[in-house]
Structure formats: structure tokens, C-alpha cells
Amino acid sequence: MTPKDNFMNSNSTSSLTVRVARKIFEAVDICTFDLISADGTPLPSFSAGSHIDVHLPNGLTRQYSLCNDPAETHRYLIAVLKDPGTRGGSKAMHELVTEGDSLRISAPKNHFALAHEAKHSLLLAGGIGITPILCMAERLSVADADFELHYCARSRDRMAFHNRIRRSIFSPKTAFHFDDGDVAQKLQLDALLGTPQLGTHLYVCGPKGFMDTILANARACGWPEAQLHYEFFAAELVKSDADGSFDVKLASSGEVVHVQKDKTVVQALADAGVEIQTSCEQGVCGTCLTRVLEGEPEHRDMYLTPEEQAANDQFLPCCSRAKSPLLVLDL
């Protein structure tokens, strides 16, 4: 995850209309969607690791990583896992979106960019986390960069893009790992992460448990935070009986808004007539990233790095709260 130097940079109002050219069942519970420009013009370029916001027919907005070759301008390819714990996003994509439909999307954004100074890139994907990782592998392969890809899944029939990867020019740099396979083919974290190397960068994406395990192991082995790059798809919303109320102050007007213990900052501000653009509402996408001018946030997001959280100069108001009685926000 790269430093968030441009606050609120993801709150772009630009949007595109695309048409679903193809919808394919790629693997168990995974559909791919081929999106092309509605008017036939080239789509905005994107870099490996980018995602788009997709405005769904049921009114929700969700982020999906682009997993086609970044050199392509005629389409965006996304893959969506139908999550049994869905809050409505993946279900809408699977059940409501069909070939020929028009969708409104954002221009591509990238909070998970490649570090081009890396001497070696270690790409680890778990399940649907292959989507941004695959795009990275395409880009690194074209650049003739040094990398390896490890792709983990519960079983072969749940592994999206298996055939595409096996046919790719980077297939020799790829290892597949299945939970239901024999022990010898399973991911060996000690061997991969045990000795951090200067110039080696680690990229990880997948289910939260998978990512937590990878990152915890890497940090325990002494990997510098600057060499760790990650992107969470979802987070567990943290609520506690110990949550208290606090105030937020808008720096531009001086208005003070009280945040009750059962409300988020975003909700409290909305009740006061102050709208902050949100998307995931789980602290993973960064859409609502807001600068903190005074006070100490209680970070509950999965978007900021530990160093960024420790700086306490920004927070995600969709999920994070306050340790101090007052937060002064750059709003």
C-alpha cells in the first residue's frame, strides 16, 4: 500500500458509461465481466493494481480490481466472487447484471501500485485476490522484470484464470497451491519470507485471514514496511460496548458535530447535512480519507499502513473513531 499523499484524491466525480460485452462463469462462484466503452471510444489507461468503482443496479457502489493487461484500452476486465456474506454487492453483480447492460463506473484509481524500483517482486494471491495480482504479473512480464507469483485457492475448481496463467509467458514463474492438495505443493511461508532481501517487494491480496497471516509472518521476519504492499477487499466492522461519544469540528466553518456511540462519523455528519463520499463503508477503499488537524483518531481501517495510522494526521470516518474528546477535520 502506497503513502496517501493526496487527501480525498479518490473522491473524483468523473464517471464513465460502459457496456457489459461478456459475462463468463470463470470458476465456482466467480464471474468475469468484460466492460467496453458505451460509445466505442478507448477507455482511460490504467496501471497494474488499479481498481474501478462500479455503481450497481441496486444503488450500491463497489470496488473491483482490473485484471486485464494494462496495455489494453478497448476493455476493462473484472472478476467478482459471490460472497456468502455479501452485503449486496457481489449478489447484484451475479444476479442483476447481464450481458448488454450498461453500467456507470469511475475512472481507474490505484492505491496498490507496483514499486518500479524493486529488484524482485514476490506476488502472493489468495482466491479472488488474484485480480490485481494477475494484472501486476502481466505488467512485470512485459517489462522483463524479476518476479514470482504464488496463487493459493481452496481447490482447482475455485481458481479463476488458472488456464490463462498456465498459457501465459510467465507460467514458469508461477506456482499454484491448493488447500485440498498434497502437503508438498502447499505454500511454504518460512522459505518465502524467512530472509528479507534488500530490493525485494512483497505484494499480497486475498481474504483477510490469508492476508493477515502473510503480513504477520513478513513483519515477524523483519520485512521493512516500505517493502510490503497489500490491498484488502473487505474488513470486519469493529464495534465495542466501550465505544464512547465524541465531537468532530469542521475546520472550514467551526461547526461542531456530536458523534454518538452508535453512529459513525460519516453518519453523524450526514445527519448534520455534511456529506462525505463513501463507497465500501468498511475502511478498505480509502474513498472517505480525511485529514485530521487536531485530536487523536482511533484507527479501525485496513487501508492505512501502521506508520500512516501512527502519524494520526488522517483517518477513515466510515469506520474509525476518536480517542480524544474532539477531532478537528479538514472539512
Describe what you observe in this structure:
This protein is an alpha/beta fold and 331 residues long. The protein folds into three domains: 15-106, Elongation Factor Tu (Ef-tu), domain 3, CATH 2.40.30.10; 120-232, Nucleotide-binding domain of ferredoxin-NADP reductase (FNR) module (Rossmann fold), CATH 3.40.50; 246-329, Beta-grasp domain (Ubiquitin-like (UB roll), Roll). Helices cover 17% and strands 29% of the residues. It contains seven helices and 18 strands. The strands form four sheets. Strands 4-3-6-1-2-5 form a six-stranded antiparallel sheet, covered by helices on one side. The chain has a five-stranded parallel sheet with strand order 9-8-7-10-11, sandwiched between helices. α2 (130-142) links the parallel β7 and β8 (147-153). The longest helix has 13 residues, at 130-142. It is globular.
Topology:
Layout: E1 15-27, E2 30-37, E3 51-55, E4 61-65, E5 76-81, H1 89-95, E6 102-106, E7 120-126, H2 130-142, E8 147-153, H3 162-167, E9 174-178, H4 189-193, E10 200-206, H5 208-220, E11 228-232, E12 246-250, E13 256-259, H6 265-271, E14 290-294, E15 297-298, H7 306-311, E16 314-315, E17 321-322, E18 326-329
Parallel strand pairs: 7-8, 7-10, 8-9, 10-11, 12-18
Antiparallel strand pairs: 1-2, 1-6, 2-5, 3-4, 3-6, 12-13, 14-16, 14-18, 15-17
CATH class of the largest domain: Alpha Beta
Helix content: 10-25%
Output the structural class. alpha/beta
Query: CATH homologous superfamily of the largest domain, by name?
Result: Nucleotide-binding domain of ferredoxin-NADP reductase (FNR) module
Oligomer status: single chain
Going by CATH, the architecture of the largest domain would be 3-Layer(aba) Sandwich
| Largest sheet: number of strands, sense, barrel closure | 6 strands, antiparallel
| Strand content bin | 25-35%
How many structural domains? 3
**CATH overall fold name of the largest domain:** Rossmann fold
Strand order of the largest sheet: 4-3-6-1-2-5
Our Rg estimate from Cα atoms comes to 20 Å
Q: What gap, in angstroms, lies between the N and C termini? A: 25 Å
In DSSP terms, counting alpha (H) and pi (I) runs of 4 or more, how many helices?
7
Secondary-structure element sequence? EEEEEHEEHEHEHEHEEEHEEHEEE
Low-pLDDT parts are 1-13
Shape: globular
Strand segment count: 18
Mean pLDDT: 89
